[in-house]
């Protein structure tokens, strides 16, 4: 039952490296863009309902993500992500374990969605993302949870692992607008995105936070349930996200209001292709792109069954990644 939803008081952290990041060059001046979520403008233009309809139609032959399962989720069929067309969440709570531009003083309003299409063998939150722990709720209830987070003072609505529920999320945002939602929507994703889905989110999402996991197809296939096409789609996704929202912009308090924030988790033995990733960013996005190079990997779930990822990250591996970032001229690395 929806009324039994347990909203955890302690955040289920993605645990990116601590970031104390504030740059005057990227603060919005009083004359600059307003702190005004894009989805409000789209609703004023009467375009949001059309997006909801288009996204929901995808459920009938689901291809929201690159898994391209083509199941009818409206009929209760499930694909790789194991999700139906009814949204399922694990928690909705202020979160302070995100990057500082998202967290500020009052926290990021994190909504953790159950299930996941990527299904990595080292998933730290496998109880939620793979085993599907959580509670099914209506789109209306999801909208109400967004409003609760706003009332608690959260700086944004942080949609964690959202792709397989994109139709429900956009529907909930539309419903939440009438309830007074006025803070930016953050699309906090594992980088495995379909271009068509991202294009339907254009003008709805203000802040994209993709975690680019792999640059090698074989490694993606081995460690993330045969997602051999991950690098191809992740590269397209990064460029599309930047096209939509541009470089990260902060308000006068140093809080993110719009833009791209890229995460990259270092994996042992160069499994993640960190140098290739940083080179790709430098050659395809501005060198001022905000990047969080995360060094917090620890073996979880089934990782101990895979010798190359059965240990944590060494200091030398993190130092190597920072060296590569400097080598390719990237200037906005979160610390």
Q: Which tags fit this structure?
A:
335 residues; alpha/beta; TIM Barrel; nine-stranded mixed beta sheet; 11 helices; 9 strands; globular
The secondary structure category is alpha/beta
Rg, rounded, reads 19 Å
Helical content stands at 25-40%
- For the record, the CATH class is Alpha Beta
What's the helix-strand series?
A: HHEHEHEHEHEHEHHEEHEH
Number of strands: 9
How many domains comprise the coordinates? 1
Q: According to CATH, what is the topology? A: TIM Barrel
Low-confidence stretches: 1-35
- Write out the CATH superfamily name: Aldolase class I
CATH hierarchy: architecture: Alpha-Beta Barrel
With helices defined by DSSP (H or I, 4 residues minimum), what is the helix count? Answer: 11
* Mean pLDDT level: 91
Give the terminus-to-terminus CA distance.
Answer: 42 Å
The coarse overall form would be globular
Fraction of residues in β-strands: 5-15%
Q: Can you offer a commentary on this structure?
A:
This protein has eleven helices and nine strands. With 335 residues, the chain is an alpha/beta fold. It has a single domain, classed as Alpha-Beta Barrel (TIM Barrel). Strands 1, 2, 3, 4, 5, 6, 7, 8 and 9 form a nine-stranded mixed sheet that branches. α5 (139-151) packs across α6. The termini are far apart. 50% of the residues are buried. Mean pLDDT is 91; it is low at 1-35.
